[in-house]
Amino acid sequence: MSGDDGRTDGGTVDPTDDDLAIQTDVSASVQSRDQRVASTETVVRAENVNVFYNDAQALNDISLEIPENRVTAMIGPSGCGKSTFLRCINRMNDLIAAARVEGNLFLRNKNVYDDDVDPVALRRRVGMVFQTPNPFPKSIYENVAYGLEIQGVDGDYDEIVEESLRRAALWDEVKDQLHESGLDLSGGQQQRLCIARAIAPDPEVILMDEPASALDPVATSKIEDLIADLAEEYTVIIVTHNMQQAARISDKTAVFLTGGELVEFGDTDEVFKNPSSDRVEDYITGKFG
Ligand SMILES: Nc1ncnc2c1ncn2[C@@H]1O[C@H](COP(=O)(O)OP(=O)(O)OP(=O)(O)O)[C@@H](O)[C@H]1O
């Protein structure tokens, strides 16, 4: 059975090494949803991760530990490898022929690059939301239910769809139009629909790649509020170009700089108030980037 099932009220985890390889019983993790409690467990641990696109190195020896039920922001100038790192966590880089990943990347105690890891099972535990809202050309209901179907999730879809839309703070706005197209929603609503789709299989980690950069300030603010709510139950890892946003919503901040180096990682307050190097300070204060 999956590591989800090993959780206890104390927030401890009893993962097995077979977590990702054998997890098929998602209903069990749905049941465990309410049992989740905030903790400081490490959920994602990178050890000496290097990524290359053909011969070009995009990430250089990245090691860090991302805590459970927190928002961790990845910031840094364009091209420094933030999205590449995010895609290592759910093995989306597998889909890029030129990409090669070296090193170890653990989801709890399991290296997601082990041969026996099923990337589909991994992506059920590590959901993703992209920069541009990308609902399917289907109804609001089907957008959420279709994700469940393709991931082979069993359960009462009506219930899961409603619950997911509620968790994405969208239910009240769409409950009377569930069978209308998701594409007719506003950009901000579409992004919340994509968040509902990502959380429907009840992942442990949600990756967000600049989820608000295509949205206006009001829609952005709603997404930021939502991220804070989601972190009560999920581990959220967000790439953002917006340093104020990182400072507002994240607990931890990782600063990447050109060359794919992780130059600072720590509590967000510390990173912003007291950066440990001139390079980071220059970036944070807008001297470059
Ligand atoms: N599919 C790809 N094929 C080849 N090179 C790539 C690919 N994706 C990214 N790269 C290169 O890897 C490096 C890191 O890119 P990545 O998109 O991860 O950076 P980023 O920090 O997320 O950038 P941005 O903030 O502009 O989105 C860049 O030099 C980029 O050109």
Instruction: Using the coordinates above, name the CATH class of one domain.
Output: Alpha Beta
The count of DSSP E runs of length 2 or more, i.e. the number of strands, is 10
Q: How many DSSP H or I helices?
A: 12
Tell me the β content. Answer: 15-25%
Assembly status: single chain
Rg computed from alpha carbons, rounded to a whole number of angstroms: 18 Å
CATH superfamily of one domain: P-loop containing nucleotide triphosphate hydrolases
Q: What is the end-to-end distance?
A: 46 Å
Low-pLDDT ranges = 1-19, 22-38
- For the biggest β-sheet, the strand order reads 6-7-8-3-9-10
Main pleated-sheet profile: 6 strands, mixed
**Any guess at the CATH architecture of one domain?**
3-Layer(aba) Sandwich
GO cellular component, one term: membrane
Protein name: Phosphate ABC transporter ATP-binding protein
InterPro entries: AAA+_ATPase, ABC_transporter-like_ATP-bd, ABC_transporter-like_CS, P-loop_NTPase, PstB-like
GO molecular function, one term: phosphate transmembrane transporter activity
